[in-house]
Amino acid sequence: MAGIRSAGSLVAVALSVGLLAGCGGGGDTSKVPESLESFTAEEIYKRGEYELENTRKPEAAVKYFSEVERLYPYSEWAKRALIMQAYSYHRARDYEEARGAAQRFIDTYPGDEDAAYAKYLLALSYYDQIDEVGRDQGLTFQSLQALREVIEQYPDSEYARSSILKFDLAFDHLAAKEMEIGRYYLKRGHYSAAINRFRVVVEDYQTTTHTPEALMRLVEAYLALGLNNEAQTAGAILGHNFRSSPFYLDAYAQLRGAGLAPAVAGDSWLTAVYRQVIQGKWL
Prior knowledge:
Blueprint: H1 2-20, H2 41-55, H3 58-71, H4 76-91, H5 95-108, H6 115-127, H7 138-153, H8 158-187, H9 191-204, H10 211-225, H11 228-242, H12 246-257, H13 269-278
Helix pairs in contact: 2-3, 2-4, 3-4, 4-5, 4-6, 5-6, 6-7, 6-8, 7-8, 8-9, 9-10, 10-11, 10-12, 11-12, 11-13
């Protein structure tokens, strides 16, 4: 027994030297030791955790987590290492690899308790790539889809609550894109094109923060085209839902300047929207 303890102590010393080399100054912690095959899955996994928590080099942690999966593919540690790969890739802003690792976890362990987190990481890999409004919004649509899946598949999880908040922000982001394009057309006098964009906001993104401005811009565009009925109806919808908004005050001033007032008039898509408002189906 004494001999076994002595051998175990030597292994522990070798482990501390081999795995933790570089914790002090001057060491290169990003290099994976060549002799990892002699270490247990737990030892390699914990080295990955150390890299992630102490070196601020998530890409280095990925190497260790990947080795756990390679050397011990059917172990519990391999499963844990796979979800940590996804997290580490995300921390490193390597979103494509993060998605790949998260999806592999979902495919391999669909019933595992961490599947919800893997799904959430996959959604985040899209969400965190949403850039300024002027960029292509394809990633925003993918983010919405992935977040919706988290909400629907894991409704009682903490990730569902976070996903709902992020879904609303991503949804608002799409509306902002439509508004940006609509303003561009409006400024250049392309009123019909502008109206089409503002209509999308009113009909498809009515729960976002951009709806009041979209309605005000519709008043402006329709007045410019001489379509007074539509302008008045847009103003009426705006007044019904957002009377305290500065956009309503602006729209009201524009209508008054044209000798008009907010009122339901004519028969257009806006008239149908107004009926929905009155019937309580607006939001």
